[in-house]
Structure formats: structure tokens, C-alpha cells
Amino acid sequence: MLPPLLYGAAFLVVLALRRVWPLAIPAQRTALWLGMVLLVVSGGVALWGHRTMHAAGTNVNPLLPAIAVVTGGPFRFSRNPLYLALAMLFLGLSLAIGTWWGVVVAAPVLLVMHYGVILREERYLERKFGESYRRYRSRVRRYL
Known about the structure:
Blueprint: H1 3-20, H2 28-56, H3 81-96, H4 101-129, H5 131-139
Helix pairs in contact: 1-3, 1-4, 2-3, 3-4
């Protein structure tokens, strides 16, 4: 499953759980503002990462083959800035609607992303790019 679809399905679960049992965040005004900040930051990181990948001539879609190891832009700070942006978007939306369910549902989603997507992609990139990817991996953290 594509990561955006995974997060989208998970957010639908959050909305359904919220309807059954709100699990409201007491400081809703603060949660709304924090959620909005996360939404803006996630959008900026996603746009920056997308543009950087496009400029490097590689595919953004994880179902398509990687053409190059991208080390510029947000990839200087994280090997997975687009996936971080998705997680921030998910949590930002959850905070903006004022429910703790986003935090609860995020835990299994992050595990699926780590074990089912990210580690698999790393093995693929190491097989495809060898030493250049290993050097990059040794310099840049997986997440933050």
C-alpha cells in the first residue's frame, strides 16, 4: 500500500473512533494551533522534498524505480523527509480536530511504515546503489 493511502485509511479510522468515543484533547485551542503548525511544516517539507527529488531526476512514487540517491534539500537532514511529512500531516490533522485517537492510531501506522516500507526501501537502495548509498546512510539519520 502506498504510504499516503496508509495514512489516509488510518485517518478515516481516527474519524470513526472519534465519532464513537471522542477522546478529546482538553486544551483544544492549543491542540488546534499546534496542529496547524504541524500542517504548515509538513506541507513545506513535502514540497521541498518533492522538488528536490524531481530536480535530481528520480521518481517520487515509491512504486517506481529509484534513479539516484538524493542527498540534497531535506535529504541532508533525514533519509525519509517525505515520510516524516506524512506523519506530521497525520498528527497535525488529529490535533486540529482535537482528538488523542491520532496518537493512538499513529503507533501501529509508524510500525508498518518502519518495518513494511522504510526498511524494505533501504535494502532496495543498498542493493541498487551499493557504496554510495551506504556512505549517505552513514552520514544522515533515518528520521531526525
